[in-house]
Amino acid sequence: MELRQLEYFVAVAEEAGFTRAAARLHVAQPGVSAQIRQLEREMGEELFDRSGRTVRLTAVGEAVLPYARAALAAVDGMRLVVDEFTGLLRGRVMIGGVSAPSVLDLPGMLAEFHERHPAVEISLVETDPETLLDDVQSGRLDLGILGLGGRMPDGVRVQVVVDQALVAAVHRGHELAGRSSITVAELRDLPLISLPVGTGLRTALEEVCAQAGFGPHVAFEASDPLVAGQLAGRGLGVAILPESAVARAASELGVLAVTEPVMRGRMGLIWRESGPKSPAARAFIEHARRHLPDLAG
What we know:
It holds the Pfam family HTH_1. The protein is 42% helix and 24% strand. The protein has ten helices and twelve strands.
């Protein structure tokens, strides 16, 4: 029995298919099938039911799976211990994010860490805020960057890395384009362009509108602030955006400060309070916290 066979077995079980497992493992599908067949011969039992449209574990496969995972985890643990003794940092770091302003210089942060620790594999995925938060809490992601709105759940730590005013952006020919500011109350009944429900910016907009006694009329949603600005530039509504998102398009848009009250958009670095188990992930979180601003105060 080889560790590679156990790795393939776990991948097929988790992906419910040989093709998806092969893609995950970056190997050819026939090779995965052959190794699983060899493992089944050594075990003397079939581990997968291949009769249906999807591959399912047999009763024996279900019983064996926890032990296969434990064996692979033990080997990973041995490697980490050796790496810590030798000073070599390797492993994998999973980061989740939403569209972040350029002031954060995420590429620079990632490149600097990679230069220091070239043996660490870094994966960056974009996802929606709710999924991102769930994945950080569960440990599927080591770190997340997202807009902040409302209270963070217990067990999640936050470092505020962006705190900027939210503004209203309109087409140059819009009736509001000549003004320098607009109150929250004046947003009532205007067709607004905003980020989707659940984002920090959308939550901030909904909270101030609720305080003024109305719900915002959001005519268009865009997950990317730059796209929202482009929609406003086409005359499709009033975009509520962070200052940094309209800076590059200020010549094409009329930009108004939002007052009474002033709206602010915040983004935060989030991670589990208990911390990740991987030394690589711990090192990356420390690096990100040093590299990015800390605006909590």
